[in-house]
Specification:
The protein has 123 residues and is mostly helical. The protein has one domain. It is built from six helices and no strands. Helix 2 runs antiparallel to helix 3 and helix 2 runs parallel beside helix 4. The longest helix is centred in the first third of the chain and has 21 residues. The protein is globular, with a radius of gyration of 15 Å. 18% of the residues are buried.
């Protein structure tokens, strides 16, 4: 039986041309995670992993097309990243094996969102 294509994900060929698609997906997933955090003060590992991968895919497309995002989109990204940083304690709690995960994926230090578990959250 052929595997059915997920309709909730952007088309890869579109991503190669329009990095702003990943920005929209990153924003949508981050908003969903933030709403869940506000409601339950607890997050699912799968939702957070999806968010980290979304941010990595956005970074990948921006690297391929450095001027693809408009100045307004770049400002939006900065705000979204600031909101993501606030989830560091939740990420640390929900993904206890994040260090092993990023090591197995060979995540570069420049992808700071994969290292939120190492941030000082006692401030």
């Amino acid at each position: 039986m052929p595997r059915q294509k997920r309709s909730d994900l952007p088309d890869e060929s579109e991503l190669a041309v329009h990095p702003s698609v990943w920005l929209r997906w990153y924003e949508q997933h981050l908003r969903q995670v933030l709403a869940a955090w506000a409601k339950r003060k607890r997050l699912e590992q799968e939702d957070l992993e999806l968010l980290l991968f979304d941010r990595s895919d956005l970074e990948r497309t921006m690297k391929a097309s450095p001027r693809a995002l408009t100045p307004a989109e770049r400002r939006k990204l900065e705000k979204l990243d600031s909101e993501l940083r606030k989830l560091a304690p939740a990420i640390k709690a929900a993904i206890p094996d994040l260090a092993e995960m990023r090591q197995s994926l060979n995540v570069p230090k420049s992808h700071w969102w994969w290292f939120l578990d190492e941030e000082n959250t006692t401030a």
